[in-house]
Amino acid sequence: MSFKTIQTYFNFTKDQRTGIFFLFLIIVVLQTTYFFLDLSVASKEYPEKQKWLALQSEMDSLKVDFKNKKPIIYLFNPNFITDYKAYKLGMSLQEIDRLLAFRKENRFVNSPKEFQSVTKISDSLLNEMAPYFKFPDWVNNKKKDTKFKEYTVYQNEASAKKEKIILIDINQATKEDLVKIYGIGEAISVRILRQKETLGGFVSMEQMKEIWGLSPEVIENLNTHFKVTTLARFKKIEINNASLKELSQFHYFRYALAKQIVTYRSMYGNIRNIEDLTKIKGFPVDKANIIGLYLDFN
Questions:
Q1: SS3 labels along 191-208
Q2: Model pTM?
Q3: Is residue 86 included in any domain, yes or no?
Q4: Same domain, 162 and 210
Q5: At residue 149, does pLDDT exceed 60?
Q6: Of 33, 59, 187, 232, most Cβ neighbours within 10 A?
Q7: Mean pLDDT score of the chain
Q8: Which of 227, 249, 264 is the last residue of a domain?
Q9: pLDDT in tens, 20-67
């Protein structure tokens, strides 16, 4: 290809040269604009989005805290411990089976030492579990067969005079015994006796907190003079056979809870222990140890 041939490619008419000039000028203007101006699209800020992001961050933080948090172990009666809870506390399947076999004979352990004797758990595991054991008052006082017991207290350190306080079984207390306590009149004494009749007998002095009109100070006075030394003889409620009406008439159950219990039985079969009852919505878990003593799970 000769130079003249190449030169023909650059021969433009006047209109073509004008077009090329304006095209070049447009390119220069666009390049200058792109260089000096920030044409990036500004991201829009949405307040709701920021709020949700902050909430998500808080939730992530709570999840981390929850994973690192040690589970809280509440006081419990070891006679009613479930397989799952026993396993979580470190008991082996053989140890759990020994306790279940013992309970099937309708027998109870009444102390940490007896619990270890039945289950054969190690001393180290017993030391970890024992602080969470909670036995009823009547168990703690089961060796006290007499109605009365004398305690020596000092009313005043200066005088150092001994006064004997007669400790009476609350289930054998009379109206006259109750009104002797400061803060208890005839009305409250009658209320206490009616509650005893309704329940068939008290199983713990904790039940005094359920009686309307008793202040903490009066309850403390009651605990000084009365205890549950022997378990009252009453007919236990057969939780797996009782009708809806019978369950709803129990002091600690109401119709709605009784209906839930009947529904639970129909869906899952017999209720084995108090732990099964605590799974039912509306069950007063804080009173489980007391309620369990009024029930028969056979």
A1: HHHHHHHHHCCCCCHHHH
A2: 0.47
A3: yes
A4: yes
A5: no
A6: 232
A7: 81
A8: 227
A9: 888 888 998 888 887 777 655 555 556 776 777 777 777 777 776 656
| DSSP codes of every residue in 226-247 | EE--S----PPEETTT--HHHH
CA dihedral (201, 206, 211, 213) positive or negative: positive
For 170-186, the DSSP string reads GGG--HHHHHTSTT--H
Residue 58 inside a domain? The answer is no
Count of structural domains, the chain: 3
Tokens of 272: 């084995």
CATH number at residue 199: 1.10.150.320
Model pLDDT for residues 91-113, shown as the tens digit of each residue? 988 898 898 888 888 788 888 99
Domain residues for the domain of 156 are 148-227
Same domain, 261 and 214: no
Q: Which residues, other chains included, contact 248 with Cβ-Cβ below 8 Å and sequence gap of 6+?
A: 254, 255, 258, 259
Final residue belonging to a domain, choices 227, 250, 271: 227
Strand partners, 163: 153
Torsion of CA 195, 200, 201, 207, to 10 degrees: -50
| Nearby residues of 76 by Cβ (< 8 Å), 6 or more positions away | 85, 132, 133, 134, 289
CB contact burial 224-246 (16+ within 10 A = b; e otherwise): ebbbbbbbbeeeebebeebeeee
Of 157, 290, 148, 128, nearest in space to 230 by CA:
148
* Per-position DSSP letters for 7-41, written without gaps between them: HGGG---HHHHHHHHHHHHHHHHHHHHHHHS--PP
Answer yes or no: is 57 within a domain. Answer: no
Shared-domain flag, residues 220 and 245: no
Do 220 and 290 belong together in one domain? Answer: no
CA distance 267 to 72: 30
Q: Considering the domain boundaries, does residue 168 fall inside one?
A: yes
**Beta strands at 162-169 and 148-154: parallel, antiparallel or unpaired:** antiparallel
